[in-house]
Here is the input.
Amino acid sequence: MDGGVVGLSKSALTQFVNMVLAEDLGTNGDITSQATIEEDARLNAVLTPRHDIVVAGLPLAEAFFQKLDPAVRIERLASDGERLTAGTALLRLTGLALPILAAERSALNALQHLSGIATMTRQYVDRIAGTSCILLDTRKTIPGLRAVEKYAARMGGASNHRMRLDDGVLIKDNHIAVAGTVEALVKRAKSAIANLPVQVEVDHLEQIEAALAAGADSLLCDNMDLLTLRRAVVQVAGRVPIEASGGVRLDSIRAIAETGVRFVSVGRITQSAPAADIGLDYQVCVPSAVPGAGVTSGQEQLPALA
Here is the structure.
């Protein structure tokens, strides 16, 4: 990546910030603030969660403020991946009022969404703590937001699984229904894509030996109950890693992990996580001349956005 931020390259970050701001500002910008606030008015503001969260997306939130006012002073008070209790400040801003107000909603939307994902993800990770099982995310993401959502899942403690269709081979029942037997498809995939492992989805124990005999490098056990998963683990006997998926919830993931599977994938951490409640609270107005713009707290300033 060319100087990446929150899973986005520098060029992708620029495109994303510009697109989101254009969506919110429209053609004429924040007309309410422009009509009611002097151009040189300044303010202090602080971003604070209203409940306990795991933080994700602070550098992205900063990028919105810096795009509209490169001279804004930003003090980062927390780090992505950090657990914070309600009321603990995340970010402090000092700068011109008009650009801060204009960027507020875009910055909060991004930070709330990504922190919501990280917070839910950490709940699932905590639930399987002490087992050897690893939580995986999925491709069940909001269109256009996969890179940042999977970044948030990483901040919550999950491992990314298949960012795109071109970085992993997964033979599912749909492929078999269209193109033939699992043996034929695995051999065909290995011949065509020699540099990637081949994973095969199995719905029944009877499919396991055929998949392994064909050369599958891992198995995806889909929608199996706990007893069947335990039998699958015994049958495979460590020959390849097993991933369990399908309808996994916070109240069921511990029992699934304890069957002995190596991975559990959960779509809801990116698909259904509620946004974190984070507010931007305005503090005392300050004089117009405030030296020393930039990001403080030992973190590098984001690359300039075009």
